[in-house]
Amino acid sequence: MDRGARESAEGPLRSRVVGTSIVKQCREVGDKLTLTNNGEPWELRPYAAQSAAFDEATARRLIEAELWREGPLLPILHALQREFGCIPWEAEPLIADLLNISRAEVHGVVSFYHDFRRAPAGRHVLELCRAEACQSMGAEGNGRRLLDKLGIDWGETAEDGRLTIRPVYCQGLCATAPGALLDGEPRGRLNAEQLDALVAGLDAEAKR
Amino acid sequence: MKVFVPLDAGAVAVGADRVAASIEAEAQRRNRDITIVRTGSRGMFWLEPLVEVATAAGRVGYGPVAPEEVASLFDAEFLEGRPHLRSIGLVEEVPFLKRQTRLVFARCGLADPFSLEDYRALGGLRGLERALALGPEAIVAEVKGSGLRGRGGAGFPTGIKWETAARAAGARKYIVCNADEGDSGTFADRVLMEGDPFTLIEGMAIAGIGVGATKGYIYIRSEYPHAVHSMTKAIETAQRAGLLGRHVAGSNYTFDIEMRVGAGAYICGEETAMLESIEGKRGQVRAKPPLPVLCGLFGQPTVINNLLSLASVLFILSEGAQAYADFGWGRSRGTMPVQLAGNVKHGGIFECAFGITLGELVNEVGGGTANGRPVRAVQAGGPLGAYFPPALFDTPYDYEAFAAREGLIGHGGIVVFDDTVDMARMARFAMEFCAHESCGKCTPCRIGSIRGVEIFDCILAGREREKNIALVHDLCEILKSGSLCALGGLVPYPVLSALKYFPEDFGAAVEHAAVGQEV
Lengths: 208, 519
Fold this sequence. Notes:
The structure holds two protein chains of two kinds. By secondary structure, chain A is α+β, with helices and mostly antiparallel strands. Chain A is 41% helix and 21% strand. In chain B, strand 7 (215-220), helix 11 (225-240) and strand 8 form a beta-alpha-beta unit. Chain B has helices at residues 9-12, 16-29, 70-75, 95-98, 116-121, 126-134, 136-146, 158-167, 188-195, 197-211, 225-240, 271-278, 307-319, 321-325, 358-365, 399-404, 423-437, 443-460, 465-482, 486-490, 492-501, 503-508, and strands at 2-6, 35-39, 51-55, 58-62, 87-90, 174-179, 215-220, 256-261, 302-306, 328-329, 332-333, 335-342, 348-353, 375-380, 387-388, 413-418. Chains A and B meet through helix 4, helix 6, helix 7 and strand 8 of A and helix 1, helix 9, helix 11, strand 8 and strand 12 of B.
C-alpha cells in the first residue's frame, strides 16, 4: 500500500520525539496521538496544542530567505525556531521540498542537535550550565535542588508553563561560575540563593 | 571624561549593564559630562564589573562594582581617579595583567570593539597590510617560520596546514574558523570575539590570502549569543569599510566571511563534524583521509583553524616570524591565552609564553581556590583533559610536557577544584558527557561511553570494585585506540587520571548515600 493510501486509511504517520531522544512511530487518531510502549498505551496531548501556530507562508518565506547560502539547513532551522518557538513538524516536508533533500535527512538534522525543540518552551528559558567549571562551584547541587523544587527534570517545563530548564555544557562564563543564560541574558556567580531569587523573580512577574 | 565599562558576557553576567546604566543616571543627576565606552573585558573576571576611568597617569580601575555602589564612586571623585573602597589603582599595574605577554589579547578591553578607527589606532590592520605587501607564498613562510601550532588542542603546525592547502588543487578554497569553544573552562574565544572581533576578521583575511581561499566561515556556538551578535556587527562593519569583499583592503584579493551558528552539539567542535554542520548535515565525524585540507568543506581544500591560531597570525605578520618564535620554549612557540576557571580566586585570561609551570598558574597567578580551601585537582584542557593533582604542579605549560604526563593543553583551559571534589563523580561525569555528546558514528564512543557510565555506577555503589576498575581500564584502551575522533579517543584522559591520582575516591565513594542515584 502506498503511503498516501495508508495515511488516509489509518490517519497520517508521524514520528515524534518522546523523552529526550527516543524517536518512535505513532499514529494520529482523531485529535489524539496514541503509541504503545511495551504494550501499554500512552496518551499524549494533541500534537497541535504543543506547537506554535504553524503558518506555511511564513515558514516558506523564512526558508527562502536562507536559500542563497551554501548548506542553508542550520540557518533555516534557527530562523524557524525563532519564529515558531520550535521546529514544527509541518515544516520538515516543506524544508525537504525546498532544499530538494529527503524528509528523513531533514528530520535527522533536527533530531541531532540539542537546540532544536519539538514543542515551544515555557515563557522563560533558563539554560543552566552543568559543565566541570560550574560544577567546581556547586552548580550541580544547586540545579538539582531547583529542579526538585519545581518538580521537573532537566529539559522539562514547569507545570504552569512559566519556566523551562535546559541543561547546557559551558557558556564561557567559567570564571564567574556558576553560570546560566536566562532568556539569553548571561548570569554569573549564581549561588543557591541567587538562583532561588532569580526564579522567585519570575514568580513575581507571573503574578502581576 | 571617558568611563569604560565592559560589555563582555562574563561581565554582564555579574551586572556590568546595570552598573553602566547606574553610572549614566548618576552622572546625569550630578550634571557631570561623561562618555561611557563599552569595551571588551580585560580578562580579570574576579574584578568584574570593572569600571575604568582615563586619567593623566593612565587608566584607573574600580572593581568589582555593584550598581548600588556607583553613587559612592561619584562621591569619592572616581572620575579623577581618586581612591575608593573598590579602587585597584592603575589597571596596567595589576600584577595579573602586568605579568602577561599579551600578543593575541593586546587590544582586548581597551576600546570600543566595533570602532575600526580605535582598532587601527591600537595597531590593528598592520598584519594585513604587511601580508598584502608580502603576497601568499611569503605569508605562508612567515607562519611556518613562527612555529605556531594549532591552538584548538591537537597542536598541529599551522604553517604546514596552510602550505598544504595553498598547494592543493581546488575550484574554490575555504577558511573555516573554529569558534565552537565547547570545552568547559575555556572562554578566550568568546572574550576575544566580544572584545576585539576585528582581530579574527583580519586573521582570517590573512589566511585567505595566504592559501588562496575566497570564502571564510566562522562557526560559533549557539551558547555564545553575545559573541554571535558581536561578530555579526563586526563583519558588517568590515564589509562596509571594504576590508572584506571583492577587493580586500583595496587589493586584488577577494575574501569574504559568513557566520554560522551551531545548535548545541559539542561534537561540532571536531573539525570534520563542523564541516558537516556547515554543510547542513548532522554533526557527525568524517573518517580521515581525505584530510579536510585537501578535501574539506563541500569537497574543496579547506583550512580549519582555531580562533586563537588565526588571531596569533596578526602578530606574526606584523612583527615577523622570529619575534613570535622568540616567545615560548621547545616545540611550543609563542604565547597561549591560558584560561583560569572554576573554583579559583583570580579567574580570567592569562596570556603568557609557554614554559610557565602549572603550579605557578594555579597558585601564583590564580591565587588558589576562590573559597580558600586547598586545591585538590585541576582539569587542564577541557572535559577531555586529564585531572592533575598538586603533586604534578611542576609540569611546564608545554604541549610535549603535558603529553608526557598523559594530559593535554587543549584550548588552554584550567579548571580548579577544591578538596570537596569527588573524583569518582568527575570520572563518571566524563563518561556521561561523552555519551551525551557522542555523534554516534563509531561504536567505541557511542556505546562505550554508556557502558562507562554503567560501570562507574557499579563502582560507586561498591559492587565488585576491583573487577569493575579493571574493566574501566580495558574500556579506556578500546576508546583510545578504536574511536574515530578525539571525543571518544580522549575521554580516557580524565577517567584514567582520576583513577590514577585519586584512587581513594573510588574506594571511599561507597559511603556517599546518594551516589549513583542522581542524574
